[in-house]
Design goal:
This protein is an alpha/beta fold. The protein folds into 2 domains: 2-152 and 231-266, Rossmann fold (3-Layer(aba) Sandwich); 171-226, no CATH class. The chain has 10 helices and 7 strands.
């Protein structure tokens, strides 16, 4: 338990340092179009428009901007790391439609939210159960939880590369890590270009998402994979059981571009 807590704290610190350094969410990288790409059929426009939403692990506010653009009536942005000041500054433009709370994911206020969203967060939490229980309490009866996590199925070739590499990268100082990530970013660009012509693994993701990102945002995708101390890649059944074990019903899983899992579940009405 002590080791797990230390790993979780280090991961939060890693992301805090990352988001203080890299704050820009412009273009397709921070668009509502990409938000809908993440959740596919699980979360339509009417599931966000006019809703009261909590965003868990808001970082620099990228998902908050997406939710506001999608028409959310109000967003509570929750972030525990040193990037909280960045989040506050980045979301000031939305006025009273956004409230920022410096809190951990297991401290979501129980305010009868219509929707709780967590994108790219739970796979960096060694024990996500307290976060999911907090999300259940925070939702109104019938409210929806929507999460996105790294997947294992369809990702085998990538994981054969990245898992051994992460053994090194989580130990590297910042400057060598940045140099390595830029080198890998160049390789990612070449791979994405090749996917336009060849039936390579992750071709759909490369063509629909990566090829539309400018070089600096591709760097962030790479850095985000290699920087944090903890990362888990979920199998479909593991991801479903994670939500169901916290009391969510009607749990659905969407295999986004055949490599990651978007999930939704509801807090029962009674």
């Amino acid at each position: 338990m002590r080791r797990e807590r230390a790993l979780a704290e280090r991961t939060v610190a890693d992301f805090g340092e990352q988001w203080v350094r890299y704050t820009d969410n412009s273009g397709f990288y921070g668009s509502v179009e990409l938000f809908h790409d993440v959740f596919g059929p699980l979360l339509g426009p009417d599931d966000v428009r006019g809703r009261r939403v909590a965003d868990v692990g808001s970082g620099t506010g990228r998902i908050v901007h997406m939710l506001v653009a999608a028409g959310a009536a109000h967003v509570t942005a929750i972030e525990p790391s040193a990037a909280f000041a960045v989040l506050e500054e980045a979301t000031q433009c939305h006025g009273d439609r956004v409230r920022c709370l410096r809190a951990a994911g297991d401290q979501i206020p129980a305010e009868d939210f219509d929707l709780v969203v967590s994108v790219g967060v739970l796979h960096h939490v060694p024990d996500p159960r307290p976060v999911l229980r907090a999300a259940w309490r925070a939702l109104r009866p019938g409210g929806t939880l929507a999460v996105w996590v790294y997947g294992r199925e369809g990702n085998e070739a990538y994981l054969a590369l990245v898992l051994p590499l992460r053994w090194l990268t989580v130990r590297l100082p910042h400057r060598p890590l940045v140099g390595l990530c830029w080198l890998l970013t160049a390789g990612l660009g070449l791979y994405a270009a090749a996917c336009a012509h060849l039936p390579l693994p992750l071709r759909g993701y490369m063509r629909s998402v990566v090829s539309r990102l400018p070089r600096d945002k591709r760097f962030l995708v790479v850095y985000d994979q290699l920087n944090p101390a903890y990362a888990r890649y979920y199998r479909r059944q593991e991801a479903i059981e994670m939500l169901a074990g916290a009391g969510f019903t009607e749990v659905e899983a969407y295999h986004r571009h055949g490599y990651s899992w978007a999930l939704s579940g509801r807090r029962p009405r009674a």
